[in-house]
Specification:
Layout lengths: L3 H14 L5 E6 L9 H8 L4 E7 L2 E6 L5 E5 L5 E6 L8 E7 L3 E6 L6 E5 L2 H7 L11 H9 L5 H6 L9 H11 L12 H20 L41 E5 L2 E5 L6
Antiparallel strand pairs: 1-6, 2-3, 3-4, 4-8, 5-7, 6-7, 9-10
């Protein structure tokens, strides 16, 4: 599932390829992928150009040269972007395509049809309506202190709440807690000041590393817990059980369910 690091990569990709090109047409295979009526989307965006982007959590907002017109992209379970020339075949699963006047196109790839595209007038109002909090990368120690103070839920579930830390998904939450040496079942409002500092530092470390490595998990530092998980690009393939040990001290990694989500942690480091 595309999470904050992947969506940040899409943001850079779109900015590097698609800005300042007038949109001539938009083709949509399945209107259910739209959060705005197709006729309205086409009428509003035809002739407009993308001018910049902003990412908040897993949401990518693309600004245009028309006042009050912003495109919101959500990549669902497996969405992505592909920029290509008219002379090439349409990418597989590119169910929404923006056609630019210069002969290039932007395909919004939707393999599982959980992805969404639509228009928003005001980004701040949209985020408030959808209860999407501050982007995880922008959280300060003060932000975390304030938001966790009244949360009686366990910290793993709290971090997955998009109103708390927008963009944090399951593996990211596990990695943040591992790097900060916090047990996933600790109550959020019981974290000590030094633990909140450690959590904020871990958030910066994990997310910036993931962005730098373009979310290619096999390329992450060996000190990361993520190597205990099974990924398509894992050097261990599906044979990860023998590698489920803490990179710090070799303690076997434990796997439990927290808030219904599979959770990896080190029982020695994260007491």
């Amino acid at each position: 599932m595309p999470e904050l690091p992947e969506v940040e990569g899409y943001r850079h990709y779109l900015e590097a390829s698609c800005l300042h090109q007038p949109i001539e047409n938009i083709d949509v295979e399945d209107p259910k992928l739209l959060t705005t009526d197709y006729a309205t989307l086409l009428e509003t965006l035809r002739g407009a150009s993308f001018t910049g982007t902003r990412r908040v959590g897993k949401n990518l907002f693309v600004f245009t040269d028309k006042p009050g017109v912003t495109v919101r992209m959500h990549f669902g379970m497996s969405g992505s972007l592909e920029y290509y020339h008219n002379s090439l075949d349409r990418p597989r699963h590119a169910r929404i395509v923006f056609y630019f006047r210069g002969g290039f196109n932007l395909g919004f790839v939707c393999p599982r049809k959980f992805e969404r595209v639509g228009l928003v007038e005001d980004v701040a109002a949209f985020l408030k309506k959808k209860k999407i909090g501050k982007d995880a990368l922008e959280l300060t120690i003060e932000d975390l202190t304030n938001v966790l103070a009244n949360r009686k839920s366990v910290i793993k579930s709290t971090l997955l709440d998009q109103s708390v830390a927008a963009g944090v998904g399951n593996w990211i939450a596990d990695e943040l807690l591992f790097q900060a040496k916090i047990h996933p079942e600790r109550r959020a409002n019981e974290l000590l000041p030094d633990e909140i500092v450690a959590l904020r530092e871990a958030t910066q470390l994990v997310l910036l590393t993931a962005i730098e490595k373009e979310a290619r998990y096999a390329h992450f530092p060996e000190s990361f817990l993520i190597h205990a998980r099974a990924w398509d690009d894992s050097p261990y393939g599906e044979d990860t059980e023998q590698h489920l040990t803490c990179p710090r001290d070799g303690t076997p990694i434990e796997i439990i369910r927290v808030g219904g989500r599979t959770t990896y942690f080190c029982p020695t480091c994260q007491k």
